């Protein structure tokens, strides 16, 4: 194992109790066909996502809340997006578990984290740039990639108030998760049928589609990316993002160690992916600010000063991905390291330093008599 991850590729195995042995028995040729079908289903969900969001939002706007209509008018535009953000993990993880051959369920969570983040980048952070035509947005990126600077600069600054409402709505979802109302409802229902002890086992764990490690990691990262992308355009966004992070620390700092059952992990793979996703947020921020400075600057000098930052972020992202060995300590560093100590970094078992006579006397004393 070397510092450069291009030399060797290593992965941490899942816990033995979490392994899906039936998936390991599938034919590799059959697995490739199922995987292609899974990617096709994911692509279909990608293009159907936006029409569903628009339909839910239009329905929410038509609801009359009476005296609370002014409050509802501020929240209704985000309702469709929030509903689909909540339902999307169920759709995605169902596809992964059905079509993908996985060694353990934790790998379904890992795939969910990556794809869920991609969906939210396109349909949450860049929702205004995408508009109501996802096909047109994708064709613009493919045919004229440089147009993305002006597209983001013209549309995304107008969405700052929308994302302020979106972040505030996230606070409510975090606190609702702390209430564990679904688990409580399942426990109360099962306790009437099978008793309290058995009901407690049947009520756990919580829904892993939405509350699993992959889904939570993607949502937490996207909320932080919203603060990164829109923080300069709307400084109060930084405060709202900080409050959101503080609430997350309080809520999940209690739920994970004290309330929820322990889940299988991959030894830091989810945190590593979250850090890579933050680089994506930085790239979007650089593209947005370069476009804003180019559109609204008095001359080209501010844009020229900001442009190199994009190349630096991309270089840093590649360096983070390739040049750091985060799963295992490099053999080179292990050999070169010399821990301080009186034995010059060498460990000598204390028993081997005792005189031979003392060892022999101890052996004879402990030897059972015939």
Task: Give the SSE map.
Blueprint: H1 21-24, H2 28-61, H3 69-99, H4 105-125, H5 127-130, H6 134-143, H7 147-155, H8 160-179, H9 181-194, H10 196-203, H11 208-211, H12 213-230, H13 236-259, H14 269-296, H15 301-322, H16 331-336, H17 350-353, H18 356-366
How does this structure look, described?
The protein is mostly helical and 370 residues long. The protein has one domain (18-366). Helix content is 74%, strand content 0%. It is built from 18 helices and no strands. The chain has helices spanning 21-24, 28-61, 69-99, 105-125, 127-130, 134-143, 147-155, 160-179, 181-194, 196-203, 208-211, 213-230, 236-259, 269-296, 301-322, 331-336, 350-353, 356-366. Helix 9 (181-194) runs antiparallel to helix 10 (196-203) and helix 12 (213-230) packs parallel to helix 14. The protein is globular, with a radius of gyration of 27 Å. It starts with 20 loop residues before the first helix and ends with a helix. The mean pLDDT is 80.
Counted by DSSP, the helix tally is 18
Distance between the termini: 54 Å
From N to C, what is the helix and strand string? HHHHHHHHHHHHHHHHHH
How large, in whole angstroms, is the Cα Rg? 27 Å
Beta-strand content:
under 5%
Question: Structural class of the secondary elements?
Answer: mainly alpha
Silhouette: globular
Number of strands: 0
Mean pLDDT: 80
Weakly predicted, low-confidence segments: none
Number of domains: 1
Helix percent band: over 70%
Please outline the major beta sheet.
Answer: none
